[in-house]
């Protein structure tokens, strides 16, 4: 399985052009978001993003729930391999309730907007004690038509090795599922934890929108 082997997998086209336009057009709407972040103000890169407020748009909620159900068994298997005494319920609502009981009540799905010259520094989306180890990013714009550059970048650091980088090109409507923080890797000395970070390379021209689906809420 590519997620086990590489720490990421591309979904293939899941959103059609109309759905991509519908989601990206929400960025300019004043309601439905809880926070706007300008990356340059915080040293995160260049560009900006907005976190959705509850209730989430129906398509975002549907994607969040559906992907969680498919990914929870793998997340549980990873934790067993890494010796983490954490298991995830089958239902995303039960996991969100766990987050909320721990004070992580702020929704984390977000829309990101990049223009020419913008980029996103390598980072990890860790928002509290309860972290789901996988997340999904969907490309909403058309590469080569709406924008140039701006590839998704994933780096992996294994113990006693130099970092490995993956540059991932997506088509409009495709998603990439990837590890948020750590994943298990089998080696000659048994299972080791490898550390991952993700970001976006510099946009050369145009405008790029993505939808980020994170399964844990923020404190």
Q: If you had to describe this structure to a student in words, what would you say it looks like?
A:
There is one protein chain. With 219 residues, the chain is α+β, with helices and mostly antiparallel strands. It has a single domain (2-214), classed as Sandwich (Jelly Rolls). It is built from 5 helices and 14 strands. The protein has helices at residues 2-6, 17-24, 39-42, 58-82, 92-101; strands spanning 8-13, 33-38, 45-46, 48-52, 110-115, 119-123, 134-139, 147-149, 152-157, 164-168, 174-179, 182-187, 190-200, 203-214. The strands form 2 sheets. Strands 1, 2, 4, 5, 7, 8, 11 and 14 form an 8-stranded antiparallel beta sheet that branches. Strands 3, 6, 9, 10, 12 and 13 form a 6-stranded antiparallel beta sheet that branches. The longest helix is centred in the N-terminal third of the chain and has 25 residues, at 58-82. The two termini are 33 Å apart.
């Amino acid at each position: 399985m590519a997620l086990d082997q590489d720490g990421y997998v591309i979904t293939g086209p899941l959103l059609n052009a109309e759905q991509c336009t519908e989601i990206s057009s929400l960025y300019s709407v004043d309601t439905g978001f809880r926070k706007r972040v300008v990356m340059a103000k915080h040293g995160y890169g260049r560009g900006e993003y907005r976190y959705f407020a509850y209730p989430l748009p129906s398509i975002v909620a549907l994607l969040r729930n559906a992907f969680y159900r498919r990914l929870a068994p793998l997340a549980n298997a990873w934790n067993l391999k890494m010796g983490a005494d954490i298991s995830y319920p089958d239902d995303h609502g039960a996991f969100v309730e766990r987050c909320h009981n721990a004070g992580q009540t702020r929704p984390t799905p977000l829309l990101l907007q990049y223009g020419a010259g913008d980029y996103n520094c390598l980072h990890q989306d860790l928002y509290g004690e309860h972290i789901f180890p996988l997340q999904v990013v969907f490309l909403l714009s058309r590469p080569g038509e709406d924008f140039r550059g701006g590839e998704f970048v994933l780096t992996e650091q294994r113990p006693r090795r130099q970092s490995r980088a993956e540059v991932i090109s997506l088509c409009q409507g495709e998603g990439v599922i990837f590890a948020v923080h750590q994943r298990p890797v089998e080696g000659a000395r048994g299972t080791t934890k490898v550390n991952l970070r993700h970001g976006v390379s510099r946009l050369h021209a145009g405008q790029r929108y993505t939808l980020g689906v994170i399964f844990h809420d923020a404190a």
